[in-house]
From TrEMBL:
<dbReference type="InterPro" id="IPR013149">
    <property type="entry name" value="ADH-like_C"/>
</dbReference>
<dbReference type="GO" id="GO:0016651">
    <property type="term" value="F:oxidoreductase activity, acting on NAD(P)H"/>
</dbReference>
<dbReference type="InterPro" id="IPR020843">
    <property type="entry name" value="ER"/>
</dbReference>
<dbReference type="GO" id="GO:0070402">
    <property type="term" value="F:NADPH binding"/>
</dbReference>
<keyword id="KW-0521">NADP</keyword>
<dbReference type="Pfam" id="PF08240">
    <property type="entry name" value="ADH_N"/>
</dbReference>
<dbReference type="InterPro" id="IPR014189">
    <property type="entry name" value="Quinone_OxRdtase_PIG3"/>
</dbReference>
<feature type="domain" description="Enoyl reductase (ER)">
    <location>
        <begin position="13"/>
        <end position="325"/>
    </location>
</feature>
<dbReference type="Pfam" id="PF00107">
    <property type="entry name" value="ADH_zinc_N"/>
</dbReference>
<protein>
    <submittedName>
        <fullName>NAD(P)H quinone oxidoreductase</fullName>
    </submittedName>
</protein>
<dbReference type="InterPro" id="IPR013154">
    <property type="entry name" value="ADH-like_N"/>
</dbReference>
<dbReference type="InterPro" id="IPR011032">
    <property type="entry name" value="GroES-like_sf"/>
</dbReference>
<dbReference type="InterPro" id="IPR036291">
    <property type="entry name" value="NAD(P)-bd_dom_sf"/>
</dbReference>
<keyword id="KW-0560">Oxidoreductase</keyword>
Length: 327
């Protein structure tokens, strides 16, 4: 077991962050203990820090949903993993730490030639993209997909996965530079939402009523526009509502076009559901990670002690890809 355990604590009074020391976790049945080299930031971490996204009762109270590192202990009932293996994993909290446990069904091998920072960028985005676009929305090769928030960790990886798996990708982002980067990742067109109305732009391109699948983390006034541009039998999936949970909607197109409106959060799903996602990702996506055809975008790497700066960068919304904590 590790001799030292460091983790990020939240001050209950002012919600500031600091690195503390304590007793390391131990792996239970079906779990790995990971010596963490890097941890990925997610917007859910900011919400948890603010007290707006409490962890499930059985989860670690610490922030951090994804890590990469080396297996240093294996719990009972674990097969296929050994001490010394390189691993990236979706944790059940507790990733902002020098050591973390993860259910074995949520652990993935680190793809060839990936840095620990790149590997830590994978688990949350991979499972979110796979579940929502492919399991829930049933995206198929040849279909048109619109991904909002294209410059996020989920968005950048989603654009690349969809392109490699044969979809025609459209996306939105907040600057011309981000839009240019997204077209280099494989988007057919990236719309600058600060200067362009994506509904009007798609209509001008002759693509109104032709978008088969939409992944939306924006919400608010984007919801009506999504409904308007969706193709008959279109599937619209919401995973966040950055512009608000409420919107005034005309739902007539829902009937006329036979649309499906759905949504999900990853953390609320069971270990068994996430294990199925991992199995399908290993079959369908991992060969493209191993070949280098799909690679995450890392924006910035901060030492664990600079976690406040890392959170500030995410809060600003100027990043492109994943923000990483390095240990």
């Amino acid at each position: 077991m590790p001799s030292e355990y460091r983790y990020v604590a939240i001050d209950e009074n002012d919600r500031s962050l600091s690195v503390a020391t304590g007793t390391p976790p131990t792996p239970g049945p079906g779990e790995l203990l990971i010596d963490v080299a890097a941890a990925g930031l997610n917007r859910a971490d900011l919400l948890q820090r603010a007290g707006l996204y409490p962890p499930p009762p059985d989860a670690s109270p610490l922030m951090g949903l994804e890590v990469a590192g080396t297996v240093i202990a294996v719990g009972p009932e674990v097969n296929g993993w050994a001490v010394g293996d390189a691993v990236c994993a979706l944790t059940h909290g507790g990733g902002y730490a020098s050591h973390a446990v993860a259910p074995v069904g949520q652990c993935l091998p680190i793809p060839r030639d990936f840095s620990m920072g790149e590997a830590a960028s994978l688990p949350e985005a991979l499972l979110t993209v796979w579940h929502n676009l492919f399991q829930r929305a049933g995206l198929k090769a040849g279909e048109k997909v619109l991904i909002h928030g294209g410059a996020s960790g989920i968005g950048t990886l989603g654009v690349r996965i969809c392109k490699v798996l044969g979809a025609e990708v459209y996306t939105t982002a907040g600057t011309a530079e981000k839009c240019e980067a997204l077209t280099s990742l494989g988007a057919t067109v990236a719309f600058n939402y600060r200067e362009q109305d994506f509904e009007a732009e798609l209509t001008e391109l002759g693509l109104n009523n032709q978008i088969n699948v939409i992944l939306d983390m924006v919400g608010g006034d984007f919801v009506q526009k999504n409904i308007n541009v969706a193709a008959p039998e279109g599937r619209l999936v919401s995973i966040a509502f950055i512009r608000g949970f409420e919107a005034q909607l005309n739902l007539a197109p829902l009937l006329m076009k036979r649309l499906t409106l759905t949504g999900s959060t990853l953390r609320a799903q069971s270990f068994a559901q996430k294990a199925v996602m991992v199995e399908e990702i290993m079959t369908t996506v991992y060969p493209h990670l191993e070949s280098g055809a799909i690679r995450p975008v890392v924006d910035t790497v901060f030492p664990l002690e600079e976690v406040e700066r890392a959170h500030a960068r995410m809060q600003e919304g100027t990043h492109m890809g994943k923000i990483i904590l390095q240990l």
